[in-house]
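Thread: Newbie trying to understand structure tokens

Hi all, I'm a second-year student working on a class project, and my supervisor (Dr. K.) asked me to get a predicted structure for one chain before our next meeting. I've only ever worked with sequences, so writing a 3D structure as a token string is new to me. If someone could post the tokens and maybe explain what I'm looking at, I'd be very grateful. Here's the chain:
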Amino acid sequence: MDYRTDSPEILREFLFYHETIKGHSKKTIDEYYLDIRMFFRFIKIHKNLVPHDTAFNDISIKDVDIKFVQSVTISDVYEYLAFLSRDRAKHHNSRRTSYGLSTSTRARKAAVIRSYYKYLTLKSTNNRLKENPVADLDAPKIRKSLPRFLSLDESVKLLDNVDGMYRERDFCILTIFLNCGLRISELAGLNITDIREDSLVVLGKGNKERIVFLNDACASAINEYLKIRKDITAVDRYAFFLSSRRTRISTSTIHSLVKKHLLVAGLDSTKYSSHKLRHTAATLMLKSGVDVRTLQEILGHEHLNTTQIYTHIENSSLRDAAMRSPLSKYKKK
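---
Reply by user tm_fold:
Sure, no problem. This is what the structure looks like when written as tokens:
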């Protein structure tokens, strides 16, 4: 898949802009392309522009032009979102898939459509669209749920039970997860040159670098792994964490090793995951008195409201309010 050859000019321009000017990652650009391609395919079916027996995934979008894009109405977009909600397969390559995409997925796809039309109206060559037909598009409301996390005792139990052939590497990964709250992609992307005496240089979302300082536990775990790492002739000599094949460790491998060590520690590996370890780090720091603004910097959140979800997990003032209720000591006689 390469959007540079598989998409029409009117879409390529938008994707080029986000890749070269906005600095979004290749993965993000590919997701934008797939989201808009799906939207265009639906609109072609919806407007009877393809034969009825054409398979959805066989619909070409190379002929999409400004006239096609201008023809879309906000009602068309809502019908598309209804299609995603009811009829779109969650795993279209599986015979046993269920149907209907999650609210968060539909909200993301709506945001991409909104961004695309905003670009065509305000940023594109000669402002291709004079009016934005989806300017008032409302996104599906996402149900907010509190993130799951390990308790302090469970975190210690997880670290205490790390063993096996790659114990130094795995222990280092889990220690950084639980102390620094890195994203799994950030951990996998660490280079040897990113390791400083008391800090890490982390490349986060949107190719934004940030400094994450190391405590004694992280520094010790890194030093122990470096003793092993320096003796390995790696295929990727810059990668810090290596797989069994001496290549840069993948995010799927990190997912697997986290699940394995959770299971060994007697913790629920179906309930927790590598991303839950990031939640754990954030929650433990907040409980220990780290303020939310500092936590935002550590986690690499662009917006404070993303970080503030953790304040609902451990809020001492709410706990104190519950204890101050006049009925807090009541017991049935």
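A couple of things are worth pointing out once you decode it. The radius of gyration is 24 Å. The chain has 15 helices and two strands. Feel free to ask follow-ups in this thread.
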